């Protein structure tokens, strides 16, 4: 039985991880079950935070989980490459390098 988004309570905030972050495809993962959970959490959350280390900027993912425009805040350990930084800015994603 699959997950049903309409049965879940809205949440004020969700924190996601990713296998990769793509300027073209957004948040990427390798497993469909993780993508399904990500999509439901994004749909139900008022604020979406993506926590990802800098290795995700050059990693490859198999399945697009959500576009960059769905992310409110990216928390990472290093600034993203210029092209990805531009895509994040265009998608109105706040960036926090910690």
Features:
3-stranded antiparallel β-sheet; globular; 7 strands; alpha/beta; 98 residues; 2 helices
String of helices and strands: EEEHEEEHE
Which residues form runs of ≥5 with pLDDT under 50? none
Mean pLDDT: 93
Beta-strand fraction estimate: 25-35%
Instruction: Tell me the span between the first and last alpha carbons.
Output: 39 Å
| SS-derived structural category | alpha/beta
How many DSSP H or I helices?
2
The total beta strand count reads 7
Q: Approximately how much helix is present in the residues? A: 10-25%
Please indicate the count of domains: 1
Backbone shape = globular
Can I get a quick summary?
The chain is 22% helix and 33% strand. It is α/β, with parallel strands linked by helices and 98 residues long. It has one domain (9-97).
């Amino acid at each position: 039985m699959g997950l049903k988004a309409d049965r879940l309570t809205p949440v004020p905030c969700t924190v996601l991880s990713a296998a990769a972050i793509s300027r073209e495809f957004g948040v990427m993962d390798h497993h469909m079950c993780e993508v399904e959970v990500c999509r439901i959490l994004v749909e139900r959350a008022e604020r979406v935070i993506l926590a990802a280390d800098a290795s995700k900027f050059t990693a490859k993912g198999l399945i697009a989980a959500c576009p960059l425009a769905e992310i409110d805040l990216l928390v990472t350990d290093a600034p993203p490459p210029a092209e990805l930084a531009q895509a994040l800015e265009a998608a109105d994603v706040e960036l926090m390098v910690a």
